[in-house]
Recover the amino acids of this structure.
């Protein structure tokens, strides 16, 4: 736990999943004595996968050394896996001491930056097999903490990951207060939130719907792994 002022940043980019960003933002921006920076390669607003407009506040080159860096996922994540500006920024921030919090397919961006070798990690169930491409150790859990790297599974799990991180940064009471004010006490209407719980027909439809992006993501992951010289199996 730390008492220092916290510099926290989160990356935004076109075709991301906004909840990967805004869920953890709601938690982390409510920590006492912190500044949250919305980061991108430029200050031009970007639209998430469903058209929501998000506005960066700092370019990567303007960003101070962070205490926490949030890496969200979404369909647009593939472009970042080939963007050396983004990948070098992740490496520099992590090497400078930042905690890394990835949500959903944001883990694949971290993998492409070479930050998951030998790291226990999770991501969205649809791409979990790709973690091994980057030398990561896939774990079927909602949130995984390995050193200063916290990976959260699909979309909504970013809230859980951020609360875990909030407790490590400011103590459990601070995290519990944030959770209480958010009234974060999920009672989903269906037990369908994981492949193990979903009805077979629903799971099959989801896999069929996501097949094109799944193939594309695999190609991008393998290309990034080859560039890194990592030859993990998936």
């Amino acid at each position: 736990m730390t008492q220092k002022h916290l510099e926290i940043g989160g990356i935004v980019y076109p075709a991301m999943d906004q909840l990967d960003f805004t869920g953890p933002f709601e938690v982390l921006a409510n920590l006492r004595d912190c500044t949250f920076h919305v980061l991108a390669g430029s200050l031009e607003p970007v639209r998430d996968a469903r058209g929501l407009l998000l506005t960066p506040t700092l370019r990567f080159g303007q960003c101070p050394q962070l205490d926490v860096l949030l890496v969200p996922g979404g369909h647009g994540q593939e472009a970042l896996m080939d963007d050396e500006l983004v990948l070098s920024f992740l490496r520099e921030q992590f090497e400078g001491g930042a905690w890394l919090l990835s949500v959903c397919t944001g883990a694949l961006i971290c993998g492409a930056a070479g930050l998951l070798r030998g790291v226990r990690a999770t991501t969205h169930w649809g791409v979990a097999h790709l973690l091994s491409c980057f030398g990561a150790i896939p774990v079927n859990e909602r949130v995984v903490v390995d050193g200063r790297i916290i990976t959260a599974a699909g979309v909504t799990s970013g809230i859980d990951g951020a609360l875990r991180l909030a407790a490590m940064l400011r103590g459990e009471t601070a995290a519990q207060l944030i959770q209480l004010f958010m009234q974060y006490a999920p009672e989903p209407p269906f037990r369908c939130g994981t492949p193990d719980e979903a009805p077979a027909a629903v799971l099959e439809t989801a896999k069929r719907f996501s097949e094109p992006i799944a193939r594309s993501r695999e190609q991008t992951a393998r290309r990034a792994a080859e560039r890194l010289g990592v030859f993990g199996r998936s």
